[in-house]
């Protein structure tokens, strides 16, 4: 199999150029959805795409589609990710997927590579959910996870502007007919940084992503009694924080025994009344558990359901917050990605993503696949997030060659 190469220098220039939008001066960015830096990044992407001769449109929720025609009247390939970031984020999460897709398209255009299928570079609006919750908002709207009307009414975190108002002011509201759909598109590719340590730890260049793992997310609540911190003897106390601490440690032991590759996290804790002189009477903490095998997650739920209802005199209850089933990506597209990786001589492994991505929603509508490149020290959503120019180049090469193989076969 002959292979094609993108430009390493162009790829590095793209990353450097877009790092200016929302630059914090410390190596990272804050580029919240539809903010001034995000709109500047969108304008620059549009400028670059139009300079290549691509046609740029948007849909009714601001998703961007930059298209290069094919030689035949066939459904389009679509590839991309998002341009928005979390607060104090990095220059690779999301944006790498857009820019490596643009680099693949630029190589096809400038090198005169003829594809039968039209090719679209896509940007999803508000993937991170850092300004407007939830994450993956626009792909969720497109796939019918929630209504546009409900999402347009979402108010920004810490502010007063709604998503609908911000989108209206952005100038990016287009035609609802332009939305991603199974009539006009036939395959979706999403390159991404791994956001974890596996590829780097194992010395591998590429992750061929087979799917996104399932997860469960619960809130666990302990209710006790507030009393004076100085006058209440220890044996009289119904301390909700003490009870929550024991419950978290017990959960850690029980969940850790289920499967070695089960991951689980308590990342959010609310304590009331949260006063240093008062015994806490209420604690709510989150439990996020993720695994490829839904049977393993069923065991997690069983552990939660069997928690004691009384812990140190405090009432325990729980609420399911949300969850998802494991998503399997398209086997044929996976084959194109794996064969491209082999042909390029890159080391790789098949793996699942522990993080959620727009591709998991798209996979319910179109054949979809993801390509991972390593993340330094496994870090993401931080200003020190980093993938080397060579790693960025290699991911773009895999995308390019997988596209060419898919074009010949589909």
Low-pLDDT stretches: none
Can you identify the CATH class of the largest domain?
A: Alpha Beta
State the end-to-end CA separation.
Answer: 17 Å
| Principal-axes shape call | globular
Helix vs. strand class: alpha+beta
CATH topology-level name of the largest domain: Aminopeptidase
Describe what this molecule looks like in 3D.
The protein is α+β, with helices and mostly antiparallel strands and 410 residues long. The chain is built from twelve helices and 15 strands. Strands 1, 2, 3, 4, 5, 6, 13, 14 and 15 form a nine-stranded mixed sheet that branches. Strands 7, 8, 9, 10, 11 and 12 form a six-stranded antiparallel sheet that branches. It is globular and about 80 Å long. Helices cover 33% and strands 22% of the residues. The longest helix has 21 residues. It folds into two domains: 290 residues, Zn peptidases (Aminopeptidase, 3-Layer(aba) Sandwich); 109 residues, 2-Layer Sandwich (Alpha-Beta Plaits), CATH 3.30.70.
């Amino acid at each position: 199999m002959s292979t094609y190469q993108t430009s390493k220098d162009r790829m590095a220039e793209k990353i450097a150029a877009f790092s200016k939008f929302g630059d914090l001066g410390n190596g990272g960015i804050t580029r919240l959805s539809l903010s001034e830096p995000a709109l500047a990044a969108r304008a620059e992407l549009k400028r670059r795409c139009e300079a290549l001769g691509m046609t740029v449109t948007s849909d009714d929720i601001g998703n961007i589609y930059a298209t290069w025609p094919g030689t035949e009247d066939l459904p389009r390939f679509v590839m991309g990710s998002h341009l928005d970031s979390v607060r104090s984020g990095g220059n690779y999460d999301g944006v790498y997927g857009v820019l490596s897709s643009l680099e693949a398209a630029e190589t096809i255009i400038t090198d005169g590579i003829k594809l039968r299928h039209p090719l679209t570079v896509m940007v999803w609006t508000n993937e991170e959910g850092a300004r407007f919750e939830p994450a993956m908002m626009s792909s969720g709207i497109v796939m019918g996870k929630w209504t546009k009307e409900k999402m347009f009414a979402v108010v920004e975190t810490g502010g007063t502007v709604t998503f609908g108002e911000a989108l209206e002011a952005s100038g990016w509201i287009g035609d609802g007919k332009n939305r991603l759909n199974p009539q006009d598109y036939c395959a979706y590719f999403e390159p991404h940084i791994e956001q974890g340590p596996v590829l780097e730890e194992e010395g591998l260049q590429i992750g061929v992503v087979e799917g996104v793992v399932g997860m469960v997310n619960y809130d666990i609540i302990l209710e006790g009694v507030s009393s004076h911190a100085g006058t209440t003897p220890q044996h009289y106390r119904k301390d909700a924080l003490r009870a929550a601490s024991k419950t978290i440690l017990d959960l850690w032991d029980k969940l850790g025994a289920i499967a070695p590759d089960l991951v689980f996290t308590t990342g959010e804790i609310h304590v009331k009344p949260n006063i240093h002189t008062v015994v806490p009477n209420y604690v709510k903490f989150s439990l996020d558990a993720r695994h490829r095998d839904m049977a393993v997650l069923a065991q997690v739920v069983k552990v939660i359901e069997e928690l004691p209802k009384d812990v140190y005199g405090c009432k325990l209850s729980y609420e399911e917050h949300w969850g998802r089933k494991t998503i399997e990506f398209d086997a044929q597209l996976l084959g194109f990605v794996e064969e491209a990786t082999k042909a390029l001589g890159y080391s790789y492994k098949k793996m699942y993503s522990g993080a959620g991505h727009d591709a998991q929603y798209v996979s319910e509508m179109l054949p979809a696949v993801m390509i991972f490149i390593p993340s330094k020290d496994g870090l993401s959503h931080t200003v020190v997030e980093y993938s080397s120019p060579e790693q960025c180049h290699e991911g773009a090469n895999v995308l390019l060659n997988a596209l060419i193989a898919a074009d010949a076969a589909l």
